Amino acid sequence: MVNCNYELSTDEIEELREKLKKLEEKEKKRKQKKLVFLRIYGTLIANFIFGLRLKHSIAKFTREFKESGKITSEASSEILANLARRVISVGLIGLIIAIVPLVLLFQQNRLIDKQTDQIKIQNSLFEKQQEMTSVQIGV
Hints:
- With 139 residues, the protein is an all-alpha fold.
- The protein is 89% helix and 0% strand.
- The longest helix is centred in the C-terminal third of the chain and has 66 residues.
- It starts with 9 loop residues before the first helix and ends with a helix.
């Protein structure tokens, strides 16, 4: 081990304290930015997932519970109604998204059936043509 008997002067100590203070301020600002970022995007994601109506009814529900310790039937029915509305709207969007590929699939099958019929007609015409050429050559 190396024995270091170096003592810092008061100027060096003050300089190190200032550097430490600046680093602490930078870290504090970074954490504040991170919290603001999470708060903003957390709110946006919550609004997207729950919807504004459901979010407001939940806030009203919790506010009433904190203030009076009781839950009114109006607040609970509002939450249930908004929850049902949200589930149904999300379900309808999912249903619409699911129907589009089904419609395309049926349309594609119909086109393939038409194409198969045309190929059958073409094959029968080709067979008749072969028969006629073989008859003409054999005569």
